[in-house]
């Protein structure tokens, strides 16, 4: 499976500009015929949280139509990063939508752990469900940014079979070393692929780290972007998950009865 990570800069609070930029990048990435594309977190609005009432996507409708059409046109799976998703009841979640090659919604996940340091808890509602889905027969999970600091949440997905973790983020540059260490640790401890797409550029409060990357189940980096806008791609062989899990049987050696 060839995966392209679209490391975008994001226009602050400007969905129109961001849809146009994402469309250009998705079409450019599709030329290379990947099996799957991934976008960063909150790619339609950035962290313009105080204006979410105006700019969040009602029920994710615009994003779903936009991504579904591109997935179908190019016959590519698209993990559509996340967007601010306004619910009919009034709340807004930070939601990832996943589309398969047929342009059908294959999964959906709303960020469970809200990041207080960036005031998310003041403007967003947390998700309440796991992000498991299947793409081209592979068992996958979708997670968002701060979620990678919660190994027990990631484990809850891998014990249910996830072999590829798709992570969308807006991870700031001052904690780049955490980003790399946490992602590599999640791959090693769960013996799975980690596909992590961060944003590039700055907003009024933060500069972001880029360094989108794919890590294999042994913890080796398959590909890694630099800080700026970039499309980086890598090939994964999910047979390797089974090989690593057979070599060091972490999942059978767990003692979950003693972990609480
Ligand atoms: O955990 C961190 O250091 C960054 C998290 C973050 O930026 C986010 O969840 O949006």
Provide tags for this entry:
260 residues, eight-stranded mixed β-sheet, 8 helices, Nitrilase/N-carbamoyl-D-aminoacid amidohydrolase, binds 2-oxoglutaric acid
Can you characterise this structure?
- This protein is of the alpha/beta class and about 260 residues long.
- It has one domain: Carbon-nitrogen hydrolase (Nitrilase/N-carbamoyl-D-aminoacid amidohydrolase, 4-Layer Sandwich), CATH 3.60.110.10.
- Helix content is about 30%, strand content about 25%.
- The protein contains eight helices and 14 strands.
- Strands 1, 2, 3, 4, 5, 6, 7 and 14 form an eight-stranded mixed β-sheet that branches. The chain has a six-stranded mixed β-sheet with strand order 8-9-10-11-12-13, with helices on one face.
- β9 (about 140-145), α5 and β10 form a beta-alpha-beta unit.
- α1 (about 15-30) packs parallel to α3 (about 60-75).
- The longest helix is centred in the first third of the chain and has 16 residues, at about 15-30.
- It is globular, with a radius of gyration of 17 Å.
- The termini are far apart.
- The relative contact order is 0.15.
- The model has no long low-confidence stretch (mean pLDDT about 95).
- 2-oxoglutaric acid binds next to loops.
- Pfam families: CN_hydrolase.
- Keywords: Hydrolase.
- This is Carbon-nitrogen family hydrolase.
- It comes from Paenibacillus agri.
- GO terms for molecular function: hydrolase activity.
């Amino acid at each position: 499976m060839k995966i392209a990570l679209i490391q975008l800069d994001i226009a602050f609070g400007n969905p129109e500009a961001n849809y146009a930029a994402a469309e250009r990048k998705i079409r450019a990435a599709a030329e290379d015929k990947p099996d799957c594309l991934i976008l960063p977190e909150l790619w339609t609005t950035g962290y313009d949280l105080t204006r979410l009432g105006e700019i969040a996507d009602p029920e994710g409708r615009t994003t779903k139509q936009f991504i579904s059409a591109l997935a179908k046109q190019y016959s590519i799976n698209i993990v559509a990063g996340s967007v601010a998703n306004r619910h009919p009841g009034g709340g807004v979640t930070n939601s990832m939508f996943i589309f398969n090659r047929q342009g059908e919604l294959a999964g959906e996940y709303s960020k469970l752990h809200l990041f207080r340091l960036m005031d998310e808890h003041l403007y967003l509602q947390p998700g309440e469900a796991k992000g498991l889905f299947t793409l081209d027969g592979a068992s996958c999970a979708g997670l968002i940014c701060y979620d990678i600091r919660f190994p027990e949440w990631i484990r809850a997905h891998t014990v249910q079979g996830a072999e590829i973790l798709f992570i969308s983020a807006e991870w700031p540059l001052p904690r780049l070393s955490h980003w790399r260490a946490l992602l590599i640790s999640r791959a090693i401890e769960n013996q799975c692929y980690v596909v992590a797409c961060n944003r590039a550029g700055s907003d009024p409060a933060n500069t972001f780290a880029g360094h989108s990357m794919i890590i294999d189940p042994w913890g080796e980096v398959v590909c890694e972007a630099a800080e700026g806008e970039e499309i980086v791609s890598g090939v994964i062989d999910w047979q390797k998950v089974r090989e690593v899990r057979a070599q060091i049987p972490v999942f059978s050696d767990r003692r979950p009865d003693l972990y609480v």
